[in-house]
Write a structure and sequence with these properties.
The chain is mainly α. It folds into 2 domains: about 70 residues; about 55 residues, no CATH class. It contains 7 helices and 4 strands. A hairpin with a 2-residue loop joins strand 2 and strand 3. The longest helix has 24 residues. The chain starts with a strand and ends with a helix. InterPro entries: DUF1468. It comes from Roseomonas elaeocarpi.
């Protein structure tokens, strides 16, 4: 079981790290103000600092209300399993897309989710992901001229 207290601390910690990453990235550039305006790192640096400060304030607030937040259960075992059934396939989509390309990852993700969670027929499980992936390829590659990440299968098919 996951209490609201732990969830608030974890979220604040992750947000703090994201703010720290923004600050770190901004420090690769100048973060000041010159006669002609802000330098490249000016806004990202300040936004990162604001994010870090606010996440610390969320942590302080969580500790101040710790008694009430610890008794408030947010995620039970069953709810956590539902979240994993939703989240793990998305992580797999990212990994497959990086290895095999966006279109193959999208096709596999849709097919697995339609069959596994949607319990659709095999006909729909094959037809919908193939048609959706083809439509996405036409829209991005031909109409918008925005190529998505390609993998070895697209290269082999001559689509890259």
């Amino acid at each position: 079981m996951l209490s609201r207290f732990r969830l608030e601390l974890a979220t604040a910690g992750v947000v703090f790290l994201l703010g720290a990453l923004a600050v770190y990235g901004a420090l690769e550039y100048e973060v000041g103000w010159t006669d002609d305006g802000p330098q490249a790192g000016y806004f990202p640096f300040r936004v990162g600092i604001i994010i870090m400060v606010v996440s610390v304030l969320v942590m302080v607030q969580a500790f101040r209300n710790a008694g009430a937040l610890r008794s408030d259960v947010i995620i039970t075992r069953e709810g956590g399993l539902r979240v994993l059934r939703f989240g793990l396939p998305i992580v797999a989509l990212v990994i497959v897309s990086l290895l095999l390309g966006m279109y193959v990852g999208m096709l596999l993700y849709l097919a697995v989710m339609m069959r596994w969670q949607g319990r659709h027929s095999w006909f729909a499980t094959i037809l919908v992901p193939v048609l959706y992936t083809l439509a996405t390829w036409v829209v991005f590659e031909n109409w918008f001229l925005v190529p998505l990440l390609k993998g070895p299968i697209e290269v082999w098919l001559g689509l890259a």
